[in-house]
Amino acid sequence: MTYVARHTVEWREAPDPRLESGRDAIVAPVAATPCDVDSAILAGHGFVDPPFALGHECVARVIDVGDAVTGAAPGDLVVVPWSINCGGCDHCRAGLTAHCTSVPHMAMYGAPIGGSWGGLFSDLVRVPYADAMLVPLPPGLDPIAMASASDNWSLARRLVAPHLAARPGARVLVVARGSIGLYVCDIARALGASDVLYVDPDAEHRKLATSFGARTAEAIEPVRHGFDIAVEATGRIDQLTLALTSLAPEGICESAGNHFRPGELPLLDMYLTGVTLRVARDNVRSHLPDALELAGSGRVAPERVVSHVLDWEQLPEALPEKRLKPVFVRDIAPASAES
């Protein structure tokens, strides 16, 4: 599935990927979903010119593996992380899997930066370093609900879980426009946040956030010293400023928005309040197992953020349409069940 122009994608034929080393695997995505940033790309706000293969969130079925692969076998359902990592370099061993030194900087699926690795809205995908990359989908977890574990679901957990562990009962502000913020609401409440305020102009998003136990607002003015943790997932500098200026002293702000446009931050206010701001590529592979464990705990409901379940062949017309979190599916049942 190839992004060719604003609001336009199309199928393009490509040679079937082949095993290029004994450490490779070939997988077939069976439940794939657009990341929040894909919506920005499809709207024409990305920083890489088309055409390129799109998609970096999926659960896939393993089709073939190299001779050296021990952690996956044909037929397995696996989560495919968005960034390419070897698992063995100094950065990978330190958990910095989005900064692997065995591949070019920013090597990833879904955009031609750091090499051409293809996209996960594809019939077949080559996965290098399969033992390091692929994470088995635990039994009992729905591939549709976990299609976003490659990035947005696991990222949402990382945005709040470590901070709530260090600050039990913290107050959490979520300023968002898509799935990440809603996942954060669910996770924050499940992990003991005393208060969650979700800010989003979309009424349906706010309704879902309310069902997760969050207070909601269409918009707010800065709440001085109002929150211990803030998560911004809009890609808008004014909304990041709102989050930063609503923090309590020594508060923490996590920015998960892709800021394609420059802007000014309230640096003096941040200095006087002593806040911490992290704007970071997510090292998803290092915390994917913990994210899947949380998903299977019964304390959260990622499936409720899935807005539409659509057939794989509907991708060309349906992907550019504005939807919260559509999942495109095909051939989820194992071969033994299909026969």
Automatic annotation (TrEMBL):
Gene Ontology MF terms: metal ion binding
Keywords, ordered alphabetically: Metal-binding, Zinc
Superkingdom of the organism of origin: Bacteria
Annotated Alcohol dehydrogenase-like N-terminal domain residues: 24-136
Cofactor(s) this protein cannot do without: Zn(2+)
Domain Alcohol dehydrogenase-like C-terminal: 180-293
Keyword flag Metal-binding: yes
Protein name as it appears in the record: Putative zinc-containing dehydrogenase
